[in-house]
Amino acid sequence: MADADDVRRVALALPHTVENPSDGFDFRVADKGFVWSYPERTPGKPRVIRLDIAVLFVGDEAEKQALLLGEPEVFFTAPGYDGLPLVLLRLAAVDLDRLTELVTDAWQMRVPDALVNDREGEPLGDRAGEPLGDRAGEPLGDRAGAGK
């Protein structure tokens, strides 16, 4: 079960992340938000900052719909988020590993290409198990018979 402190630890562990001053949490990379606390709005009532719900950048509408339909107990949306690549995440519904995956994915979608390799001198994909960058020291075009 994750909480706002876990979001803060995970987000701040990512390079170039800045926490915007707010009543909750609000994390950005290169001035682009990737995860923040949900500002719940109810007509006729003051806005309430929900520390138990995170707004998470997901990249596009297809990914948003996949998460909403695939895991409705974890993800949901609200009026005002229609057409935006954002989902609401129930923090209590995920463990720390899943939270780390989700926040890191959101960060990767928002970080400029120029900053991607600025994490201990290697591409992020090398640690995340994704095929980014040159692993064996050969030019990318020479790998697996490419270019032959």
What labels would you give this structure?
6-stranded antiparallel beta sheet; 22% strand; globular; 6 strands; 148 residues; alpha+beta
| Beginning-to-end CA distance, first to last residue | 50 Å
- Total helices: the number is 5
Q: Could you tell me the mean pLDDT?
A: 83
Shape: globular
Number of strands: 6
Read across the widest sheet, the strand sequence of neighbours is 1-2-3-4-6-5
| Quaternary structure classification | single chain
Structural class: alpha+beta
How many whole angstroms does the radius of gyration measure? 18 Å
Low-confidence runs of at least 5 consecutive residues? 120-148
Outline the biggest β-sheet. Answer: 6 strands, antiparallel
Helix percentage range:
25-40%
What share of the residues does DSSP label as strand, in percent?
Answer: 15-25%
Descriptive account of the structure:
This protein is 29% helix and 22% strand. The protein is of the alpha+beta class. Mean pLDDT is 83; it is low at 120-148. A 6-stranded antiparallel beta sheet has the order 1-2-3-4-6-5.
Write the layout of secondary structure elements.
Elements: H1 4-12, E1 17-19, E2 26-29, E3 32-40, E4 48-57, H2 61-70, E5 75-76, E6 86-90, H3 96-110, H4 113-116, H5 124-128
Antiparallel strand pairs: 1-2, 2-3, 3-4, 4-6, 5-6
Give a brief description.
This protein has a six-stranded antiparallel β-sheet. The model is unreliable at about 120-148 (pLDDT under 50). Helix content is about 30%, strand content about 20%.
